[in-house]
Amino acid sequence: MRTVVRGALWVLFGLFFLFPLYAMADFSTRNLIAGGRTWQAWANLVADEALYQSIVVSLLLAVLTVAAMLVLLVPTMIWVRLRAPWAKGLVEFLCLLPLTIPALVIVVGLRNVYLWVTYLLGESALTLTFVYVVVVLPFAYRAIDAALSGIDLQTLAEAARSLGAGWLTTITRVVVPNIWSGILSAAFISIAVVLGEFTIASLSGYETLQVQIVLIGKSDGPTSVAASLATLLFGFVLLLILSLVTRGRRGGKTPGVTT
Hints:
Elements: H1 2-28, H2 40-47, H3 49-83, H4 88-96, H5 103-121, H6 129-149, H7 153-162, H8 167-178, H9 180-196, H10 199-204, H11 209-217, H12 221-251
Helix pairs in contact: 1-12, 2-3, 2-12, 3-6, 3-9, 3-11, 6-9, 7-8, 9-12, 11-12
């Protein structure tokens, strides 16, 4: 009986999540004029120059945001846990603060700062990296914090240091392999947030993927829906990879201390 109920729930959940995706796929491949099916909307993802450029910009923003976030957050959280545990609450407060601030307020507050950023670095959309790092901090912090809480960081660090490892070696070859699942979670969540962000990019006047999707939707609905579905599927693939990698690491051995 329990198996039947569980199977029925899985079917209901599957229909709940898959039916909208099916509707999007159906609409994006439908020829609204001549009838039948066409892949023109999906071909436009590459053929439409503006849409293609916005996809490239958003992917570059995602990569730069993840890199900057990890370089900033991982060493800071490790250092706080090892050397300044009294600052853990302050770091957590600062990282979670962007959740309480609307995107409109962030844009307005950073406008004067961005006058200098555009003056020094130009008006490239890639300068949004600085804002996106702030936006993804709450999600990345929780993922990395959960991973750090699952290991005996103090013992690992002391063991590595007693064997002659420097701080850089301790972080990169001892701590990071043990929190790799948390780092992957933070990275994938950050990518999903960046690819789905619209408000900040639109108010700042940059044409990222979501901004371009909205613009195209006013004149070409199927292409807009195809781009949205492609973004969702990309996010699902990232989550699937994260699940497989995490499961594989749990089934393997815990990395040892190396110098």
